[in-house]
Amino acid sequence: MRCAIRRVPFFVLFVAVMIFALSHSRAVGAFKNLSEGMEIPDLMLKTLDGQDFSLKSLAEKDAAVVVFFATWSERSIHELEDLQELKKELEGKNFEVLAINVEHEQMSEEETAKVKEAVEKAGVSFPVLLDDGLLAFRTFGVVAVPSTAIFKKGGILHEAVNGYPTFAKEEIKETAQVLLGLKKPEKKVAEVAGYKPKREALLNYNLGRRLYSFGMLRKAEMKLKAAANADEKFAKPLVLLGKIYLEMSLKKRTALLKAKQAFEKALAASPEDEGAKTGLALYHVRKGNLAEAEKLVDQVLEKNPGYTHALALKALILGKKKDAAGAKKFAEEAVSLAPMDPEILALAGFAFDSAGSFDRACEYYRKAGEKLGF
Known about the structure:
With about 375 residues, the protein is α/β, with parallel strands linked by helices. It has two domains: about 5-25 and about 200-370, Tetratricopeptide repeat domain (Serine Threonine Protein Phosphatase 5, Tetratricopeptide repeat), CATH 1.25.40; about 30-190, Glutaredoxin. It is about 55% helix and about 10% strand. The chain has a seven-stranded mixed beta sheet with strand order 2-1-5-4-3-6-7, with helices on one face. A hairpin with a 3-residue loop joins strand 6 (about 145-150) and strand 7 (about 155-160). Helix 7 packs parallel to helix 9 (about 235-250), helix 9 (about 235-250) runs parallel beside helix 11 (about 275-285) and helix 11 packs parallel to helix 13.
């Protein structure tokens, strides 16, 4: 028998899945709201010993690495140890490493002590900040834990990595060396230059994103259209427009075609945009075109194996194809990277539901409902 939670919040959970975080560029596997070429947010957080730390201060560094971590994530601890090694290797250079703990929204003294213990055990000497209220987590739009941002001079996001895959250690090291002038960029690094959007486009996009966060969809739509018109190479506003139209399509079917068109325009502006590909894949799932949806999702995962929403959508597609083992594999991998994300939890629930594993579906629906306040 299916779990009772589906009967009350199912529609809301479905909406949460349909409007999952679709973002722009290679960086979006790590962050929903920050893409390459954008400046580091102006936030003030507290260090573990209670001192104020401004993220903007990293703009003075030639290279800076910021990692969002949690002690419940084994990969986080491995990355802290590797970053400490890198910090020591680049000692004396205009370089900084910063770790932001996203353990919980509110931290007790016991939980803070646990973080301190983990940091000390990892031998960390660089600044470690507590993200009270998960302000930085939400401002960046962290998708998975750990997620890593590499900033160049001026606090400009140069590259981002999520989930700390096996290649990440060497990639982060090489990128830092290139930014510090210690190594010539290889072709693959030189190509990751990022795109800095025009000022008018960025201003309208940020305002549109803010209006969207308040649920003001129509006003957000207007600002995002203005952003897209101001800079045709800036894909991010188009991806968010697609996200809005997906949400609208749950009440008005004609908006579904607008979502498809927005994602296709985003791909025309940025052919490898992961958010646009995943959004277009979701459109195809809605239309029942599973083969086309899976093709797009596989393209994303080939380049970014840790992109959580692509993993969860792959699980949903396999579930609809009644591949229970495949759905389980991809759903659990997505949840392991983003266990606090209700959208990922809900997608995992749908994947198991579609595959006929109702007990597992119920488990994830319940967790998603708890995160959404049900």
